[in-house]
Design goal:
Elements: H1 4-16, H2 18-52, E1 60-65, E2 83-84, H3 85-91, E3 97-105, E4 113-115, E5 118-120, E6 123-127, E7 137-142, H4 147-151, E8 156-160, H5 161-168, E9 177-180, E10 183-193, E11 207-211, H6 212-218, E12 224-225, E13 227-232, H7 238-252, E14 263-267, H8 268-311, H9 313-321, H10 326-368, H11 382-408, H12 412-417
Parallel strand pairs: 6-11, 8-10
Antiparallel strand pairs: 1-13, 1-14, 2-12, 3-6, 3-13, 4-5, 4-9, 7-10, 8-11, 9-10
Length: 419
């Protein structure tokens, strides 16, 4: 049952020495403020990092041919070989493979992309339709490359937003023809990459995408491919898929099964896992630092409560003499400690949330101006705020426990005698 007189008494006790109470509260206020700001900044850094790589398949890997390091089936060590279309056909039989796309690099010579009197130097990539499931794109105009473009070896192309800006001044270019390394292709779409900080062989916004079969024919390279991109189905171990792919490619190209060098692999999933572990470590460090700062404030509350109990020795003795039970004494001291900690902590948490919201608005304005923001939506989740509140309240009770026990040890007769 709510006892108004008791809470009024607690408030009078706290307000009796305003300066001391304020200084005590400041330690807790600062501790919870630092915890909230550090957690929010950590989340902002994480959001900014993953926003820059959003849209790139996290369970993907890339393969390219390297010189063999072992002799095998009559072939000498150091043999130069190439990935071919038939390798991809065999890989499609693997159960964990979701998407696979070859890549052929085109010439990036000076002014290699031309439209009328306008020209620029951009990357040229030959890919198939599955590539856009690995490095996803946002369409500005038109459509993506499709399977029919590959089968019919159409002379069509996709251009990035920067290419469109240089050649067409951001207008819709679909249906128009551009010259790519001396050959005319019809533009069917304009794409903008989602992952700003990760790309394959150049930024997609500064690239021209051609059907890989068309490019193989125009370059007169047969079925040779320069690079192989694959992604696994969700929850399928990418490392297991990598081992299966290497086994198939080695078997199809007469490479020793034990050759560690012939196939080079870039495991993107492993790098994403490294990022996750890095931010997990940052979160743990933030909690340690934040809780340490909060603990310093709580210790300050406990020390002040010890002083308060010492000052109120006579009062506590009188209470004991007129029949106050031990629980009444303990709950009184712990309640005062809890109120001090809760008020300071909730004010600190509110101030932290307000500051993070202000920083978020500044970062949004910076992004709107076309600048890179180091933080993206800094803030704390409801679960984290709830956990911090529970820790705060528990700390308040803990801060009052030792002083309450000290008050309980006071004997009524000794307290009344004390001047």
């Amino acid at each position: 049952m709510f006892d108004l007189d008791r809470w009024q008494e607690i408030w009078v006790t706290i307000a009796r020495n305003k300066t001391r109470s304020l200084m005590t509260c400041f330690g807790v206020f600062w501790g919870i403020l630092m915890l909230v700001i550090l957690l929010g900044a950590g989340n902002g850094m994480k959001n900014a990092m993953f926003a820059a790589i959003d849209g790139f398949a996290t369970n993907s890997a890339f393969f390219f041919a390297d010189r063999t390091s072992e002799s095998y089936k009559g072939f000498n060590k150091g043999r130069v070989w190439n990935l071919r279309n038939r390798d991809i056909d065999k890989l499609r039989e693997l159960p964990g493979l979701a998407y696979a796309s070859p890549i052929i690099w085109g010439s990036a010579s000076d002014k290699n992309i031309v439209y009328g009197q306008l020209s620029g130097t951009f990357s040229v990539k030959g890919v198939n339709e599955e590539y856009f499931h690995i490095e996803t794109q946002d369409l500005r105009y038109g459509r993506l490359l499709n399977h029919i473009d590959m089968v019919e070896k159409r002379k069509v192309c996709l251009i990035g937003t920067e290419v469109n800006k240089v050649l067409f001044r951001d207008a819709d270019p679909c249906g128009k023809y551009i010259r790519v390394n001396g050959i005319y292709y019809q533009v069917i779409g304009v794409t903008d990459q989602r992952a700003a900080s990760i790309n394959v062989g150049g930024r997609a916004s500064e690239s021209v995408f051609l059907p890989v079969t068309t490019m193989q024919q125009t370059l007169n390279q047969g079925d040779i491919i320069h690079f192989l991109c694959v992604s696994a189905w969700p929850n399928y171990p990418i490392n297991l898929l990598i081992d299966d792919i290497k086994s198939v490619i080695k078997r199809e190209n007469d490479i020793s099964p034990t050759d560690p060098q012939a196939i080079a692999v870039i495991n993107v999933a492993e790098q994403f896992e490294t990022f996750n572990n890095l931010f997990l470590g940052i979160d743990v460090l933030i909690w340690i630092v934040g809780l340490g700062t909060l603990l310093a404030g709580v210790i300050g509350v406990s020390n002040i409560m010890m002083v308060t109990v010492k000052e109120r020795t006579r009062e506590i003795g009188v209470r004991r003499a007129i029949g106050a039970k031990p629980w009444n004494i303990i709950s009184q001291v712990m309640s005062e400690s809890l109120v001090l900690t809760a008020i300071a902590g909730l004010l600190g948490m509110s101030a932290g949330v307000f500051l993070l919201d202000f920083v978020d608005k500044v970062m949004i304005a910076q992004e709107s101006a076309g600048l890179d923001a180091p933080l993206r939506h800094p803030g704390v989740s409801f679960q984290v705020a709830s956990a911090a509140t529970l820790i705060l309240l528990f700390s308040g009770l803990l801060a009052g426990l030792i002083p309450a026990w000290r008050a309980l040890q006071i004997k009524a007769i000794d307290a009344i005698r004390e001047e």
